[in-house]
Amino acid sequence: MLKNFDFSSNLIHWYEENKRDLPWRHTQNPYFILLSEIILQQTRVQQGLPYYYKFIHNFPTIFDLAKAEESEIYQLWQGLGYYSRAKNLHLCAKQLVSLYQGSFPENYNDLIKLSGIGPYTASAILAFAFNKNVVLIDGNVYRFISRLWSINELINTSKSLRIFNELLLHYLPKNQSNIFNQAIMEYGALICTPKQMKCGICVFQSQCISFKNNEIDQFPVKKKNIIKKNRYFTYFVFIENQQLIISKRVVKDIWQNLFEFPLSEEESLSDFEKSEFYRENKLKYSKEPNFVITNKKHILTHQNIFSRFVIYDFIPKEFKNNQKFKQIFINQIDDYPFPVMMNEIIQQIKIGLYL
DNA sequence: TATGCGTGGCC
DNA sequence: TGGCCAAGCAT
Question: A307-328: per-residue pLDDT in tens?
């Protein structure tokens, strides 16, 4: 077993020598910490970084964020994924302003009541903004620590959380929670990586149980086998006089609160393939579409979306003055957040390819 | 406790 | 290439 002093001091020493220069490591401002933690949920640093800069530039204080329009938040979040984070971040800012005059509570129980803040983010704020004596358990920690001590316990359960929490609290140097937690996550991100782990340069190699047993790839213990569902989307792009029809996804489903074109979803591949270009009401248009773009596949974590775009040079009557749909000018399209899947076709619409 | 939620990078 | 993976949370 690693001695208390060995693990913490070796880890922190490694961190000081090898850490990346990331902007949120230069601040203890709880608002900036909050922003970075929400953005980095299930997201790599490289992907989240530009969004962090965008948000602190557009909303330099929690008050700016709280009083922003929800549409502005979505607009900035566009392309980052997991869009409920944007909504909850906004709600959280409003709650902090109304309940705490824009300051942050410095205890776990109050933090976790805020929208979008769960056990990890609450602890992260306590550690990084207030240097409280808490430990963070995220994917990096589960991986690094389960390998080091060969902890054969299914991760992301209340039991494993308890085990890891207790173990790490034992090693946490008092009043160094800020640096200790950054260090352990950085080690997981840079050395004890999911694949191609850098055991050759790992400063804990001689003490790593799973390395000694040649079973590193068996940790962390995860539940696997997510089942992917195939879905079949036909989008109708109606363009007339530089205007087109869009609609907001209001149902509880992927891309909630983002925009799209009028959609017909088929239940199966055969339905998708055999269907003429019709909508749910089976309406057929007398005119053939000007363009049909097929075989677009978009991969999500739990779903494969097969899509095609059917483009017409007119707007049917039932889409005009219809509350479920919105008629906008092509040059306004950037004011609305769309799923990344639509980027290509939107670009083509904007340059007038389908006029 | 189990499931759904995006996107991009990696091999 | 398809599957896995990344600083979780809400329900």
Answer: 889 899 889 988 998 999 999 9
Degrees (nearest 5) of the Cα angle A167, A140, A157? 60
DSSP string, A246-301: EEE--SSSTTTT-EE--EEEESSHHHHHH--S--TT----SSPPSEEEEEEEEE-S
Q: Nucleotides on strand C with an atom closer than 7 A to protein CB?
A: 3-10
CATH architecture of A29-130: Orthogonal Bundle (1.10)
CA–C1' gap, A25 and C3, in angstroms: 33
How many Å apart are A139 CA and C10 C1'? 19
Rounded to whole angstroms, the distance from the CA of residue A287 to the C1' of nucleotide C11 is 45
Domain boundaries, chain A: 1-20+135-224, 29-130, 229-350
pLDDT confidence band for A1 (50 / 70 / 90): low
A195: CB within 7 A of chain B nucleic strand: yes
State yes or no: pLDDT of A264 exceeds 70.
yes
Q: Fold match between A29-130 and A229-350?
A: no
Q: Among all residues of A, which ones are annotated catalytic?
A: 37
Share of chain A above pLDDT 90, in %: 70
Domain topology for A1-20+135-224: Endonuclease Iii, domain 2 (1.10.1670)
- Tell me: pLDDT of A286 over 70: no
Tens digits of residue pLDDT in A213-230: 888 888 999 886 667 788
Residues 6+ apart with CB under 8 A from A322: none
Contact A117/A92 with Cβ under 8 angstroms?
Answer: yes
H or E segment and range at residue A84:
helix A84-100
